[in-house]
Write a structure and sequence with these properties.
With about 290 residues, the chain is mainly α. It has 15 helices and no strands. Among the domains are: about 90 residues, no CATH class; about 50 residues, no CATH class. Helix content is about 80%, strand content about 0%.
Length: about 290
Amino acid sequence: MLTRVISILCLGVILLWASCGFAQDHQHYQVLLNEARYEDVLDQIKADRARGQDNAELGVYAAKAYDKIIRRSGPLKRLSLTKKLRAELNHVLEMQPGHVYALEELADFYHYAPAIGGGSEKKSEIFALRLKAANIVRYHIMKGRHAHDADDLAGAIGHFEKAKSLAPDNAEVRAGLGNVLVFDQQFTSAFVLFDGLITEGNARVDIYYQAARAAQLGKMETAKAYAYLHHYIKHAKPATRFSKAAGHYRLGHLYKADSKANEARAEFEQALAFNPKLKQAKTALKELNNE
């Protein structure tokens, strides 16, 4: 009896060790993604699967790695890798039919891909409806993005407003709505959303830029706009949604509006130092020098 108990305990320890190792591997995949070691992610997933370890999250990491590789690949390689990405997402759905990430990514793929590359609005809508059933907030966020990209600002605002009514505290929803409102020139409403996220301590670094942009374009809350842009420029990383060049460009316009020509010139020049191709900064600098 004692021998059997010891055997069971040993087996439990082995299984626990294996599952912990698998969990650590999952964390390691995210580290590799953050380090842009996408091929290493795929190699390790292949090795894990060869050992009989597989679940939906492995497929998600594989899909994310393929997505990053696709973005830096040529047209021919992109086509073959896209098939592998879709295969991973479908594999995720085989294991977990209501997986929100996989449903949204497939709906996005079929929506944005050209017909020659497998795009199909009909297929996109099929996955969109499955996403709606699984997570209606994510559905409205996605549909809001699609409408915004199609320059349908009213439609985009409608979807984000619906998402906000369902999840009023969701930071992504509020930021997405704020972004669309800026394009719709509703600068005050947009600023209120971004400023609220910052005040609550619930803001990514790019939200500081978006709040300052809304304030600068709306000619309001100048003190906060200065503070938010300085914060953004200090903390923005290369992978941040908006560039440091954009931050310096916006800061230049704040100084220009305050009749601080030398400071404005320095910021426009700094913007061009980060991105020599930034046309807006070139134009702004030229106009400033001609005044």
